[in-house]
Amino acid sequence: MIIVVNNSKWSFGIIISIIIISFGIFLISFSYDIATEPQTLYTVYLDGKNIGNILSKDSFESYVNGKEEELKNKYNVDTVFTPKGVEIKKNFTYSNDISSDEEVYNKIISNKNFTVKGYEIKVTNRDDKDDNTVLYVLSKETFDESVEDTIKAFVDNEQYEKFVTGTQEEIKDLGSIIENIDIAEEVSYKETLIPTDKKIFTDSDELSKYLLYGSLEDQETYIVKAEDTIESIANSHKLNVQEFLIANPSFTSANNLLYENQEVNVGLIDPLISVVVDIHSVADEERNYDTEIQYDSTQYIGYQEVIRDGENGLYKVTRKSQYVNGQLISATISNSTEIKPAVNRIIVKGKKYAPNVADLSYWAWPTDRPYTITSYFQYRWGSFHNAIDIYVGYGSPIYAANNGVVEKIGTGCTPGYLGCNGRQGNYILINHNAGGYYTIYMHMRDIYVTSGQTVARGQKIGTMGNTGEVYPVPSSYNPYGGTHLHFGVRIGSSYINPLSLY
Q: Which of 33, 47, 302, 391 stands 20 to 30 A from 40 (CA)?
């Protein structure tokens, strides 16, 4: 038998009590999250995502500006703006879910940077639209000033100012003027809010450096040494002189003097913009003369004589020139007028073949006649004179004594005891390629042959002079003092009396 005790009365009461208590808790909770009256709140969205409600838009923006005081000081602006993607929308709601200004601010800066009002400047290659550079500035004036500074790096400042002010003088005879200055790239401006994590240029000098070098890094410098010139420094650092002058605007010419331990810039210029300058110029220009060569069959190969000196001509030339970043790109001659014609130089050269081996049966006398032998092959003043000295006159011809090859020459001497090449002065040594014979000709004024040249017997090889050690020593009172030809002959290394050949 099963006995059932009926407690349903008590169980039902407990259940009802639990329901009543739970409902009361729900009401209390609901009354906490839901206002009894709707209120105005501002919902902040970041890229469409709700990141919190705030009581006042003005209060939040004021809080942001206070927190971003450092950015305001850095960029010298009155207002810092919330990042792109941040929206603040006004809502009417019963919700009491409100975040503090600080909480919402921290959520924003953990994802994005705040912004300042400025300009996005895009510099685009006109031929390749994908080749562009984007710059950010607070004002267009900063960029414009930097562009002007960059232009002045490539254009003479005085000439530029005259071009800008329209005060260039008209070319009446000779001179040059700037016809146009332009930037090759396409430049566009757009006012925008710039994220503060971007490089924002506020200083025109800094931006000028960036436009000129394509970098904000410190450029390489060089300490000048005593032997340096502007050209040598430029070449050793892969610059041309014009680029060096651009990098060092205190210099105006390659001929400017440097001083030891001076510091100069040698950074490689890599402009972000191309400064195009069109120049109209009229100038007198020399036209170099040409050389006409005539051949004389009676003279030996190696003979050469100038029978008419050349003179440069003069032309008035009008040019249209275009420079890009200081480098000449094109120069069209629009007019050319001859002022003085050029006079061609005429040179006569020998075409007669001469063997390089001497005929030992006959030797030519090395000077004109009449002549005077002033010293013989004998002792003189306590030492042996191993040649003969022949006098005819200063500048008189000297001839090769026989066929042979010029083995050695010494040149560049000035008259007098201390002339170069020691005692010999200007001299020629001829190897006659027969019997070991050599002849030597010393103290010459002019030399008309070159080392390795074949010469013929009787060929004019130079003129008589007084270079090297001679007596009397030439002076302003006696400029031709000591003139003579020292004529020596040797077989192998042993000298013989030259007169034995005749």
A: 47
Q: What CA–CA distance (Å, rounded) separates 182 from 154? A: 12
The count of structural domains within the chain is: 5
Name the phi and psi angles at 202, rounded to 5. Answer: -115, -15
466: tokens are: 């007084």
Q: Clarify whether residues 309 and 428 are in a common domain.
A: no
Torsion of CA 151, 157, 163, 168, to 10 degrees: -160
Q: How far apart are CA 427 and CA 440, in angstroms?
A: 7
pTM of the model: 0.56
Strand partners, 447: 462
pLDDT category, 8, cuts 50, 70, 90? very low
Could you tell me the CA-to-CA distances from 434 to 302, 405, 428, 455, 465 in Å, in that order? 21, 11, 18, 14, 29
Do 148 and 132 sit in the same domain of this protein? yes
Kindly report which listed range (18-27, 125-134, 280-289, 442-451) carries the lowest average pLDDT score.
18-27
Say if 8 falls within a structural domain: no
Provide the residue range defining the domain that includes 63.
Answer: 36-112
**100 contacts 67 by C-beta, under 8 angstroms:** no
2, 189, 345, 348, 459 from 296: Cα distances, Å: 158, 75, 16, 7, 13
State in Å, rounded, how far the first CA of the chain is from the last one: 175
- Give 316's strand partners: 284, 337
Q: Chain centroid to CA 10: how far?
A: 105
* 208 and 328 fall within a common domain: no
Beta carbons of 115 and 194 less than 8 angstroms apart:
yes
Q: Are residues 107 and 119 in the same domain?
A: no
Which helix (DSSP H) or strand (DSSP E) does residue 433 occupy?
none
In a domain, 329, yes or no: yes
Same domain, 139 and 252: no
- State how far the Cα of 209 lies from the Cα of 216, in Å rounded to an integer: 7
Single residue among 229, 248, 269 that ends a domain in this structure: 269
* 390 burial via Cβ count (<10 Å: 0-12, 13-18, 19+): buried
209 and 150: one domain?
A: yes
pLDDT digits (tens, 9 = 90+) for 72-123: 888 888 888 878 788 999 988 887 889 999 999 899 888 888 888 999 999 9
